Amino acid sequence: MRNFLFYGLIIFFMSSCGNGDRLFPKKHLGRYEGRQEAFEVSMNGEPVVVPAAEHELTLAYNELWLKTPKQNIAASYKVIVETKMYYSLLVEFESGSVEEWQLWKRGRKLVRKPVPPIPEVIFLK
């Protein structure tokens, strides 16, 4: 009986460790679309307006791809906090920049929090 209990606990711990890459329900995975509003940056003391653009996002477990009109960007992420309303993600782009995003549990939306001068972007599925 002791051996049965011991092996049962080992199997339980191994199966729970195997689900670590499933950070949230599968229904949140897939393609999202969003619009980034125009914003202004300063280059060499001159103001430059970055025009509004449509973005496409593909979300998979532990990775995402952001497609803009001029480039495709790969990123990895990890869930840092789960609240009743959303999962807070720490997104690290291949360029090395890090941002905070929110994957909402309801409404099928993903929010890219603003990082000045870049405004907030809301992606909808």
Task: Give keywords.
1 helix, mainly beta, Lipocalin, two-stranded antiparallel ribbon, 51% strand, 10 strands, 125 residues, 14% helix
Summarize the SSE layout with pairings:
Elements: H1 2-18, E1 30-36, E2 39-43, E3 46-50, E4 53-60, E5 63-67, E6 72-82, E7 86-93, E8 98-104, E9 109-112, E10 121-124
Antiparallel strand pairs: 1-4, 1-10, 2-3, 4-5, 5-6, 6-7, 7-8, 8-9, 9-10
Structure write-up:
By secondary structure, this protein is mainly beta. It has one domain: Lipocalin, CATH 2.40.128. Helices cover 14% and strands 51% of the residues. It is built from one helix and ten strands. The strands form two sheets. It has an eight-stranded antiparallel beta barrel with strand order 1-4-5-6-7-8-9-10. Strands 2-3 form a two-stranded antiparallel ribbon. Strand 8 (98-104) and strand 9 (109-112) form a beta hairpin. The longest helix is centred in the N-terminal third of the chain and has 17 residues, at 2-18. It is elongated, with a radius of gyration of 19 Å. Mean pLDDT is 86; it is low at 12-20.
